[in-house]
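#struct-help
A.M.: can someone run this one for me? Single chain, 154 residues.
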Amino acid sequence: MTLWRLWGITGLALIGVGVASYLTYEKFTGGGLICLGGSQGCEIVQNSPYSQIGPIPVATLGLVGYLIFLVVTALQMRASSVESRRLLAGLNFGLALGAFLYSLYLTYLELFVIYAICTWCVISALVVTLILILATWELVALSRATQEAPELHG
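D.P.: on it. Structure tokens below:
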């Protein structure tokens, strides 16, 4: 079993945890965001009505999502059967696809509604995109392994 894709997802999720933790901290403390590139885009996006769903900051949802990626990926690494790994890979893929689509929506809001770009948000969107690529690759590889060696089920 090759683990490099799972380690890749883990590393990317840790980057995501860092970004989302920083944005969550700044949202709750009201501190001034340090926006990479020197623009005020991060402050504008962070203070927009789209930065929260009800009382919950979008960054906090991102933090929870990245932590879930870490848990699911760790479980996948420890799974004893190909079928269990494939099920967890499917879960990771579904989560990554949902996160990717939501990131696309948020990017649309930044570009066409808020008219500001948050560099941290762009980094998070890139991280999610890379996680989706690795999660898709992992799911396809495990699906092929299951089809090629059906005796490995269970």
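A.M.: thanks! The chain has a mean pLDDT of 92.
D.P.: also worth noting: The first strand starts at residue 52 and ends at 53.
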